[in-house]
Amino acid sequence: MLGGVADIEIVKDADAHRYVATLDGERVGFAQYQLTDELVVFTHTEVEDRCEGLGIGSALARFALDDVRADGSRRVLPLCPFIKGWIGHHPDYRDLVYGAPLSTAKD
Fold first, then answer.
1. What pLDDT is recorded for position 6?
2. DSSP-derived 3-state class of residue 95
3. pTM for this structure?
4. Which of 15, 42, 44, 55 has its CA 20 to 30 A from that of 34?
5. Integer angstrom CA distances of residue 39 from 35, 48, 74, 84
6. Rounded distance, CA 19 to CA 28, Å?
7. Strand partners for 31
8. What does the angle CA 50 – CA 54 – CA 39 come to, to the nearest 5 degrees?
9. Confidence of residue 84 (pLDDT cuts 50, 70, 90)
10. Could you give the CA distance from residue 20 to residue 7 in angstroms, rounded to a whole number?
11. Angle between helical axes of 81-89 and 56-71 (0-180°, round to 10)
12. What is the Cα–Cα distance from 73 to 37, expressed in whole angstroms?
């Protein structure tokens, strides 16, 4: 359950270069990206107006950035204002950003 909303699912659609959020089987948002050899460039995030404020954009950002971290082969260039702002509010993701110092946190 996400912010009181049940049945939200986020998947990576690599063919379309986007992460897609569905709610009760209906697409309600996406985070678009482009790939380079070294970067995942987030270009646009969109959530249906009727779903604003439900945390879907935040869930998309977290899922996408967790996926980039898990893959480990690229850094993030957040051209999308939403993704950039989300990272700004979540310092534990700043180490993924291209040009940011690599994390020195100890496990």
1. 57
2. helix
3. 0.87
4. 55
5. 6, 27, 5, 15
6. 11
7. 19, 45
8. 100
9. very high
10. 14
11. 80
12. 9
Distance of CA 102 to the CA centre of its chain: 19
Residue with structure tokens 């986020």?
10
Q: Which of 53, 5, 12, 54 is nearest to 30 (CA)?
A: 12
Q: Which residue has the tokens 């954009």?
A: 57
Q: CA–CA separation, 21 vs 61, rounded Å?
A: 11
Longest dimension (CA), the chain: 41
Domains within the chain, CATH numbers bracketed: 8-96 (3.40.630.30)
Residue type, 62: R
Closest CA to 80 of 60, 53, 106, 101: 60
